[in-house]
Every structure is written in structure tokens, then in C-alpha cells.
Amino acid sequence: MHAELDEIQYHLLVAEFDQLWARPPARDEGRRRERMDQMMRLIEAFEATRRMASSA
């Protein structure tokens, strides 16, 4: 998911992030943290784009 997210992809990403956040720590914690960091960057970029569009 390197390209810009659309609205549906954004909501799916947030839902996946919430699921990962709710899971107890596991053996793959490093990979989960990496994935969550990547997801946060995408979520923040999407939200920043929306803020810029709404302030224009």
C-alpha cells in the first residue's frame, strides 16, 4: 500500500490497526510493531491530506 489510500482502504487499515492493537503481545511482536508503524504512517498521511483538502 504505497500509493495514496482511498476512503475504503483507510477504514480497512484503521480496523486492522485496531485489531493488532487489541491483541496481546506475541512471539511476532517485532513484526507486528513494524506493521503498525507502517500503518500509522499511512493513516497519518491520509488524515493530513484530508485536513489540507478541507482547509482549502
SSE inventory with pairings:
Blueprint: H1 7-22, H2 29-55
Key traits:
56 residues; mainly alpha; 77% helix; 0% strand
Q: What do these coordinates show?
A:
This protein is mostly helical and about 55 residues long. It has one domain. Helices cover about 75% and strands about 0% of the residues. The protein contains two helices and no strands. The chain has helices at about 5-20, 30-55. Helix 1 (about 5-20) runs antiparallel to helix 2 (about 30-55). It starts with 6 loop residues before the first helix and ends with a helix.
H/I helix tally: 2
- Give the overall form: elongated
Structural class: mainly alpha
Which runs of at least 5 residues are low in confidence (pLDDT < 50)? none
Short description:
The chain is mainly α and 56 residues long. The chain has one domain. 77% of the residues lie in helices and 0% in strands.
